[in-house]
Queue: 3 jobs
Job 1
Amino acid sequence: MMKLAVLAAMAGSAAAFAPAPMAKTTSALNSFEDEIGALPPVGFWDPAGLSDGISQEKFDEYRLAELKHGRVAQMAVLGYIAPETYRFGYDLTPDGSVNTNDLPNGIAAINALPFLGWVQIVAFVGCVETYGWFTSPTGVLDLPDDILAKRQTAELQHGRLAMLAFLELIRHDSQNLAVPGFDGYDNLITGLPFIYN
């Protein structure tokens, strides 16, 4: 009986180190692995499985959402960093009681921004969404296919990086609000102290 138990344990442990059979990749992975934005060494990366069993139309819808979020994140990063160095200096209210120079940077500006400031932001974003400003007059760039693919891939990669950068800016600023001076720095941009002079 003891020999049988030892033999069973050895067989079980040997099976743990046997190569596992390779599953066939899904048709969704095969159909999307050559899309714009799939780069070596990772290739098409979808850890959440959002593209499993979806149509090309649904994939294009997801890609458009990723592109739009990337563009918004790029603007958000610029909007987060630019006030550290420059302010336009205009009045947000008709009576001139609130000027853009008086607003704090980052998350602290959410509570300091008056209602009419929020109205200006929402109106501008609504106009851009409704009328499609900031697009090419022809709608599509007239470039050779290989250059267009490189630029589209670069735009996706820049958007992905900007989404991560904005999350880090929010995390850093939120932590600095919770524990003021946690990092020992007075300014967001610490590598270029001369811009604050």
Note: The radius of gyration is 26 Å.
Job 2
Amino acid sequence: MELSQQAAEPAAMETAAPLKVSLTEALENKELMGVYELCDVKAPSGSLVYVNHRGGDNSKPKLYLFRGNGSTHDEEMDDDGKWIVSADKNDMATNEGYIFSTQKDAEVPTAAGLTWEEEGLVVTEGEEAGLAWIEVEAAANKEKRRRLIQMLFIVTLLSSAIPAVALGIGTDDD
């Protein structure tokens, strides 16, 4: 009886894996932000793998969040156990990616106190933060497009007015 109780204790200590996590607030690599869903595939390290399907946009590659397995692509970098974000599923075998956690001991990417090499990156459980971040980014992009259109309109007006003035057309001197 004591053996089965001892065997049950470590399982109870394991951190429950969230079904969805959100990556938000990064100052760089904004294209890697968003909602990642837990999938049934395991990384070579045996860890969980989360996938960002990019809102179903098949023209963009899926993104992967996984835990490194020690077979690093860079001999100077020790990626064993670090959480990694990548745009290529094959990167899981070589621990390549774009964003890395700084610690190696977190069972889940949302672990309390887990920090990332990407300045400002926040990883939270659930999808609310990721969806809110996507909406804010979409609004910012819409505002950028609106300003660009205004600028192009002004340039078009100015470029059509300059030749007429230069030729003296439409002046009171006629």
Note: The chain has three helices and seven strands.
Job 3
Amino acid sequence: MGQKEKKMGKREWDVDFKSKNENNENPPPGYQASFKKTQVSTEKSKAMQLEVHKSRSRGMATAPAKNIFMTMFMMWMSGSSVQIFSIMITFYTAWGAISAILSVNKMFEKFQELGVDVLQDKLIFIAIQIAIFGVALYKGNSLGILPTTTSDFAFRYPILEPLEIGTL
């Protein structure tokens, strides 16, 4: 066994407990005093961090898309008759999409501070929220609570006075 170790030399994972530093302490296993960060590794590290932040920003932008089908399923489960439950779900979905669009700058603010260009991610997020708002509008139209016909605006028409009054 001793000859085999002599032939192979010192292994990478061998720990020399006899060596001590200037404070007469043993360094931790794997510590290399000669290791120093280089400028290239720091730049690579910053580039990798920027890529991680970009992917997290894209993940935040596309996260609402995962809920579109669940929202559509909830709309379908609420039924097609005008009830408080179906109206509440419809308005909640519409209000959630509108409030998310209005708070898009606040949501991506932390990524902008880290130096990530978030314009494309904001546009993706807004497009997904518009699609969710479209689902809510479709449900409102199918419930008949959206004013889409001319009779819904009949209060704006003036009442016509008859030109002749006939007797029977």
Note: The mean pLDDT is 84.
